Description:
By secondary structure, this protein is an alpha/beta fold. It has 3 domains: about 1-235 and about 350-410, 3-Layer(bba) Sandwich (FAD/NAD(P)-binding domain), CATH 3.50.50; about 245-345, Flavocytochrome C3, Chain A, domain 1, CATH 3.90.700; about 430-520, Fumarate reductase/succinate dehydrogenase flavoprotein-like, C-terminal domain (Methane Monooxygenase Hydroxylase, Chain G, domain 1). The protein is about 35% helix and about 15% strand. It contains 15 helices and 18 strands. It has helices at about 15-25, 40-45, 60-70, 75-95, 130-140, 220-225, 260, 275-280, 290-300, 315-320, 325-330, 390-405, 430-450, 455-480, 485-505, and strands spanning about 1-10, 30, 50, 120, 145-150, 150-160, 180-185, 190-200, 230-235, 240-245, 265-270, 305-310, 340-350, 355, 370, 375, 450-455, 515. Strands 1, 2, 5, 6, 7, 8 and 15 form a 7-stranded mixed sheet that branches. A 4-stranded antiparallel sheet has the order 10-13-12-11, covered by helices on one side. A 3-stranded mixed sheet has the order 9-14-16, covered by helices on one side. The longest helix has 24 residues, at about 455-480. The radius of gyration is 22 Å and the shape is globular. The structure holds flavin-adenine dinucleotide (FAD) and succinic acid. Succinic acid (SIN) binds near residues 350, 386, 387 and 389.
Amino acid sequence: MVRKTDFLVIGSGIAGLSFALKAAEKGRVCLISKVVLDESNTKYAQGGIASVMYHPDSFGKHIKDTINAGHGFCNEEVVRMVVSEAPERIRELINMGVKFDRDDNGRYDLAREGGHTERRILHHKDNTGEVIEETLADKVRSHPGIEIFENHFAVEIITQHHLGEKVTRARRDIRCFGAYVLDTDTREVSTFLSKITVVATGGIGNLYQTTTNPVIATGDGIAMVFRAKGLIENMEFIQFHPTSLYNPGERPSFLITEALRGFGAVLRNSEGEEFMIRYDRRGSLAPRDIVARAIDTEMKLRGDDYVYLDCTHLDPVELTEEFPNITRKCRSLQIDITRDLIPVVPAAHYLCGGIKVDMNGETTINNLYAIGEVSSTGLHGANRLASNSLLEAVVYAHRASVNSAGKLDKITIKTGIPEWNIEGTSHLEELVLITQSYKEVQMILSNYVGIVRSDLRLARALKRLQIIYEETEKLYKKSVLSRRLCELRNLINIGYLVIRMAQERHESLGLHYTLDYPERERSEF
Ligand code: FAD
Ligand code: SIN
C-alpha cells in the first residue's frame, strides 16, 4: 500500500508528539509509532524539565552549568538558544495542560539535580514524563489533522538509493522521500511518501543488558539514517544513570531519580562511607559521568554488585510526598526508603550523540529532520546535564516545525518509488536465532564498551560484533520482516557506531573514559 502525506513523523515521545501538533496546523500529518502511542522513554522520565524560572537563577547560569557538565564539548550557540527559548516552550506545555508542582505560595516548586547550581527543574512529583506524555498524546488523538498508526515500525528511510542511484555519504544532495513502514500486526510493508520526514525515535538503551529505557529504545532512527548515508556523530558519549534500583532480572531497570539526591539523599558504599566526597567536591550531586564512574570504581574495588542511596536522615513525610512512585516501588520490594538504604547500580540511560542536525533539527539529508534523543544537536557535549533532554526535544520540535513548514510549498511528493520487495523471503522458523544474537550484542557492549573502556576491549567488541553482523545480514535478506529482526539489525549498526567512534577518540572526555588515554587531549575549557 502507498500513503501520501505532508509530514511523516516517526515516533510518539515528547519530540514526535510536540512536532506533530505544531505541524498539523500547516499540513496533513501521519504519525507512526512502533507499539502503542504512549510507550516511549518520555513516559518514564521522573526528574523533570529544566528551565530558568526565577531570580537568582539566570540564563547565564543555566548555560554555564550545561557547558560545564558537557566538559566544554557543547556547541555554545546551541546551548544559548535552547536555554533562552526554554521558558516559552514551558509556557506552551503548561497551556496545553501539563501541571507542574507548585509550592504553598503558588510559585513553581523547582527541584535540583546533579550539575545544576540552582533549583530549576519543573516537575510533577516523580512522574513528570508520564504527565507530559499523556497530555500531548490526548491532544494528538483528538486532532483531526493527525492520522495515527500504532504498531507500525519504520524500517528504512527512502532516498534516491531506492530509485537505483548510487548514494554515498559524501553527497550533499541526498533527499528523503518518506519511509518503508512495517505493520507489525499484518506483517505488510507500506510505502509512506512525504514532503517532510521527521525521525523522533528516541534512544538506544537496549544496546546494554542493564538500562532504564523501555524495550522500544533500540536506536532504529539512527540506524536507518546511517544506512541512508546521513551523518551520525558523538556515539561514544553514552550516559549511564548512576542510580537505577538494583533488582536483578527487572527490565527496564527502575530509575531512582537524581532529584532524590537533589533533595538530600547521599550515596554510600558497603562500608557506609559517603564515598563521593573523595571523588568530587560536589559529592553525591556531581554530574552523572563523575558519579557513575565513581560508583563503578567502588563496586569493582569491593567486589560489590551495588552501592546504596541513603534517605534515612530526610524528613519522612516530605520524602514520601515528593517521591510517591519511588516510595511505592521500593515498598513492593520490602524497602522502606525512610528507614532502609536503597541498593542502586548505574544503568545505560541516555545517548548524547546521534543524527547530526543543524539548529533547526535538519539532518544532512534534505527534507529529513531528527529531533529529541535521536539527534545530536551539540547541546549536551560529552555529558548531558540532567533534565536538559525533555527541554531539547520541545525546543527542536518547535524549530523544526517552523523551518519545515516554510519549505512545504516547494516540495512535491516523489513518484516512481518501488514498493517493498519481498521476493525470496520466508517466515523465520526459529526465533532463537534472533533472541540469542540480541542477548549477545547486549553482553558484548555491556562487558567491553561500558563506563570504562580500553583499546583491547573495544577491539574485542568489534571482532565479536562482526560475526553477529554477518549472520544477521544473511538472515535479514531471506526473512519476512519482523520487528524483532529489524531491531536486532539496528542494534548491531548502533553497536558498530559506538565502538568505532570510541576507538577514534584517543582521550578520556566526559562519558567516554578509556584506560589507554586517561587524560584529556585538549586543554581544559
Ligand atoms: P522517546 O520518548 O523515547 O520516543 C520515541 C518514540 O519513537 C516511541 O514512541 C517509540 O515507540 C518510537 N519508535 C522508535 N523506533 C521506531 C520505529 N522504528 N518505528 C516507529 N516508531 C518508533 N530527561 C529529562 O530531561 N528529564 C528527566 O527527568 C528524565 N528522566 C528520565 C527517566 C528515564 C527512566 C528515562 C529512560 C529517560 C529519562 N530522561 C529524562 C530522558 C528523556 O526521557 C528522553 O531523552 C526523552 O523522553 C526522549 O524523547 P523522544 O521523544 O526523543 O523519544
Ligand atoms: C532523573 O530523574 O534522574 C533523570 C533525569 C534525566 O535523565 O534528565
